[in-house]
Amino acid sequence: MTGPAPAAAVWGGVELLERAIGYMLGSLRLATEADYTAPTPCTEWDLRALLDHMNDSLEALQEAVDVRRVDRRSGPAGTGDPVAALRDRACRLLGGWANDPSGGDVSVDGRPLTARVLTSAGALEVATHGWDVAEACGARLAVPEALAEDLLRLVPLLVTAHDRPGRFGPVVEVPATAAAGDRLLALLGRDPYRRPRRARR
């Protein structure tokens, strides 16, 4: 990033991460073992692979608060219950950041990043994959509007043209009057109006 740093208010930090995790936990209530082979909006992953990725991401955020450093790479897929593991990680993660003793910078692959920016980026990923989980389970669980509005302000700062294709798909066109949650998903390469791949009965 170049130029002046955005106002601190844009970066919601731990408070934003807490809200995103709350939304994600609601999505996890939908997931059963029978859903683990279901496709997800992340075309290379079924739900089990997505849950393993989410566990890995939360573990990296835990490392950030524990040792102020993130330099790990994705680990092997878990062998236990990925939903239970993710719930446990989420609770421990929030406790760690809520009691963060230093609030100082975190080294990410050798580069310093403020804790506020790191946890805000984590919130964007957690909320996005929370929606992905619900969609894979055949449900539509909208991102709460207030949360989506706050995350929308972060997208131009965290997602660049270099992230497409790769981390995100092309922007999906939606009406300017669309709900904040739908606009957020569209910017992140998801079609908020597409029917879930497997409609839940």
UniProtKB/TrEMBL annotation:
<dbReference type="InterPro" id="IPR034660">
    <property type="entry name" value="DinB/YfiT-like"/>
</dbReference>
<dbReference type="Pfam" id="PF11716">
    <property type="entry name" value="MDMPI_N"/>
</dbReference>
<protein>
    <submittedName>
        <fullName>TIGR03086 family protein</fullName>
    </submittedName>
</protein>
<dbReference type="InterPro" id="IPR017520">
    <property type="entry name" value="CHP03086"/>
</dbReference>
<feature type="domain" description="Mycothiol-dependent maleylpyruvate isomerase metal-binding">
    <location>
        <begin position="23"/>
        <end position="134"/>
    </location>
</feature>
<dbReference type="InterPro" id="IPR017517">
    <property type="entry name" value="Maleyloyr_isom"/>
</dbReference>
<dbReference type="InterPro" id="IPR024344">
    <property type="entry name" value="MDMPI_metal-binding"/>
</dbReference>
